[in-house]
Amino acid sequence: xxxxxxxxxxxxxxxxxxxxxxxxxxxxxxxxxxxxxxxxxxxxxxxxxxxxxxxxxxxxxxxxxxxxxxxxxxxxxxxxxxxxxxxxxxxxxxxxxxxxxxxxxxxxxxxxxxxxxxxxxxxxxxxxxxxxxxxxxxxxxxxxxxxxxxxxxxxxxxxxxxxxxxxxxxxxxxxxxxxxxxxxxxxxxxxxxxxxxxxxxxxxxxxxxxxxxxxxxxxxxxxxxxxxxxxxx
Length: 233
Description:
Layout: H1 6-9, H2 23-33, E1 37-41, E2 47-52, H3 53-61, H4 77-83, H5 88-91, E3 99-100, H6 105-115, E4 119-123, E5 129-134, H7 135-138, H8 146-161, E6 169-174, E7 177-186, H9 189-198, E8 205-208, E9 211-214, H10 217-222
Parallel strand pairs: 3-4, 7-8, 7-9
Antiparallel strand pairs: 1-2, 4-5, 6-7
């Protein structure tokens, strides 16, 4: 089974800023390149942090309004300092949360979810910037055609991985939702088959009504080490 990686979906040419890049130049970079965030890098090209449109908009939030109300009262000292910053180094969120090009799509998605970020600078083995990946980039895997998903499941999962006889399991795919019907030789293969199909790029969900010839679940309980579930010595 071949899985797409961050390298396959990331943007390779990245617009960057330096810590001393002025506020207005950062805003101009956003406008000229139709982007909403940029990495801030050091002299070696290593990401130090990220500046987003939200960081720039924060400056507007602390401006006095016509009624004379005190602006930015809800900001803590750190965020107020960022709102008043004049350069990318002061505006940025740091440290930068990064990814590696060989990460799988799920790995990158988990990092984004964990750190509540919308994009990740991608770095090489010594931490230099080589690309950037966004939420939208990760969603490209769900643009795969149903036929490609079905073919991969039939060939890679059922044939090459599980060594099932052709036609033992019937696979249909509609809008990324996989339906499995048929008969497996052992009951223990039912959850394994479902899990492997879920791991195929572009699969939204898996539904199955798989039957089986032999109920081998009692063997898993009696001989767990033979099935890789028991304690190892």
